[in-house]
Design brief:
H-NS_C_dom, 2 strands, 4% strand, single chain, H-NS histone family protein, two-stranded antiparallel sheet, H-NS_C_dom_sf, mainly alpha, 59% helix, plasmid
């Protein structure tokens, strides 16, 4: 769609209709996806709700990950070493610190 030739009024009207149309389509796509997932689960002899609840339960039953790194001045700032480095770790390293200094 080439919007370069639309008037300002037309662009504003389009801008105001986009959020509701986007929301409507997202709801529709979610409903279709859920239906497809239910059919897939049933075709393999499973109930989708059971599969999802088992998956959630397995995630909740995991023991917490031990802290591997802690800020030298603020014990409230800690990190397990998983995922992105927290901003305090990035700043510490940028200031010349070493990861070994943060190790618990």
């Amino acid at each position: 769609m080439d919007i370069s030739k639309l008037s300002i009024a037309d662009l504003k009207e389009l801008q105001s209709t986009i959020p509701s149309e986007l929301s409507r389509r997202q709801k529709q796509a979610k409903a279709e996806t859920l239906k497809e997932l239910r059919l897939l689960a049933e075709s393999r002899g499973f109930n989708l709700n059971e599969l999802v609840s088992e998956s959630i339960a397995a995630t909740k039953n995991r023991p917490p990950v031990a802290v591997k790194y802690r800020h030298p001045q603020d014990n409230a700032l800690n990190w397990t070493g998983r995922g992105r480095q927290p901003t305090w770790v990035v700043a510490f390293l940028k200031d010349g610190g070493k990861m070994e200094e943060l190790a618990v």
